[in-house]
């Protein structure tokens, strides 16, 4: 029985294209961090290397631990002091990145309606950001961490999309059977990988991220408006 809905965040709940976000994110990050004495180009390269390491994480440590291992390898152990500054960035200047949203959107009615009707709702966002950065992005669409039963972030994950271990980790952490879940996302590789562990999936096409041109006809799919119609019609769980 379907009783749990997993949502991707970027390009799914938040209406933007990934390329726009990456450009704006790094511009804001460099602007915030270079006054601390780090070269912008070197900083961006170190962040990318840390990010790629998290995507390839084999589970030996959390994504947070792995990111900072790689980051400090590139910039030196003194770069550990940047974690506090990064947290400040995510609480302040990072919020300006919301300017790249392609439309105003408030997802609170849908998410809160699902929970009122008895569904568990999980934010299954790619766990390469700290929780504080996830919370800031949620606010762009009228949500907060309290609107979800479980949220993935780099602190609590040891794998990343499209590794299927990312999804089994969620199931293990929450104790929810995969057959009870529906994963909703905008990337046919990263998000539809949930199907490999027995989770149903639905592909949102408004801001689809499909650089490899994977045929999407094999997946249930449609725009966000159609998805909202389907989810709002789900019965109450008794």
Structure description:
The protein is α/β, with parallel strands linked by helices and 238 residues long. The protein folds into two domains: 4-15 and 105-232, Rossmann fold, CATH 3.40.50; 19-98. Helix content is 39%, strand content 9%. Strand 2 (120-123), helix 6 and strand 3 (150-151) form a beta-alpha-beta unit. Helix 1 (18-33) crosses helix 2 and helix 2 runs antiparallel to helix 3. The radius of gyration is 18 Å and the shape is globular.
Brief overview:
It contains eight helices and six strands.
CATH topology of the largest domain: Rossmann fold
Radius of gyration: 18 Å
User: What overall form do the CA principal axes indicate?
Assistant: globular
Calculate the terminal CA-CA distance, rounded to whole Å.
12 Å
Percent helix range: 25-40%
CATH architecture of the largest domain: 3-Layer(aba) Sandwich
Q: Major sheet: order of its strands?
A: 3-2-1-4-5-6
Number of helices: 8
Class per helix and strand makeup: alpha/beta
């Amino acid at each position: 029985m379907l009783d749990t809905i997993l949502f991707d965040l970027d390009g799914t709940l938040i209406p933007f294209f990934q390329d726009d976000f990456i450009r704006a994110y790094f511009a804001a990050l460099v602007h915030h961090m270079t006054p601390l004495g780090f070269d912008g180009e070197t900083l961006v390269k170190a962040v990318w290397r840390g990010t790629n390491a998290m995507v390839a994480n084999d589970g030996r440590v959390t994504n947070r631990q792995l990111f900072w291992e790689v980051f400090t390898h590139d910039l030196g152990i003194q770069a550990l002091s940047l974690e506090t500054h990064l947290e400040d960035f995510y609480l302040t200047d990072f919020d300006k990145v919301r300017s790249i949203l392609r439309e105003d959107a408030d997802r609170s009615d849908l998410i809160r309606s699902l929970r009122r009707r008895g569904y568990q709702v999980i934010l299954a966002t790619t766990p390469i950001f700290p929780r504080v950065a996830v919370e800031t992005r949620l606010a762009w669409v009228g949500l907060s961490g309290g609107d979800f039963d479980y949220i993935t972030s780099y602190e609590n994950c040891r794998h990343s999309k499209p590794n299927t271990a990312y999804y089994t980790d969620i199931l293990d952490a929450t104790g929810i059977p995969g057959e009870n879940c529906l994963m909703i996302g905008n990337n046919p590789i990263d998000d539809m990988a949930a199907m490999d562990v027995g989770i149903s999936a639905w592909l949102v096409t408004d801001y689809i991220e499909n650089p490899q041109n994977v045929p999407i006809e094999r997946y249930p799919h449609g725009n966000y408006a159609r998805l909202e119609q389907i989810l709002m019609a789900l019965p109450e769980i008794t």
